[in-house]
Design brief:
5 strands, STM4215-like, 5-stranded mixed sheet, alpha+beta, 112 residues
Length: 112
């Protein structure tokens, strides 16, 4: 299974907001988008950088959803195929062009 699919399935079960791989054509008020921004492999051990964007109708709601994402991702390494998860950074990432509040958390994931 691809790391994107693993994280998508995991967060879909862990969060009370829809989790997608792209912004839906008619987005709900709150949702999460995953994006793999980089990867590598050494001796069959894979690394991935996953950005998780939390969208909401207010900046506070986006920040609160981002916090729930980080709490859920802290437990991702309970899965057998995940060796480690580390929060690289998170920040307000509001999209002025789309006029949507969002936060982004970036995670470094080591997986098999």
């Amino acid at each position: 299974m691809m790391i994107e699919e693993t994280v998508l399935n995991y967060l879909s079960d862990a969060l009370d907001a829809p989790v997608c791989m792209e912004v839906p054509p008619e987005p709900p008020g709150r949702f999460v988008v995953l994006e793999k921004t980089g990867s590598g492999r050494t001796d069959y051990i894979c690394r991935a950088v996953i950005a998780v964007q939390s969208y909401a109708e207010s900046l506070l709601e986006a920040a609160m959803l981002n916090r729930r994402v980080k709490e859920a991702m802290d437990e991702l390494d309970d899965l057998d195929e995940i060796a480690s998860v580390r929060l690289n950074t998170d920040c307000n990432f509001t999209d002025p062009a789309a006029k949507r509040y969002r936060y982004q958390a970036v995670f470094d994931i080591t997986h098999y």
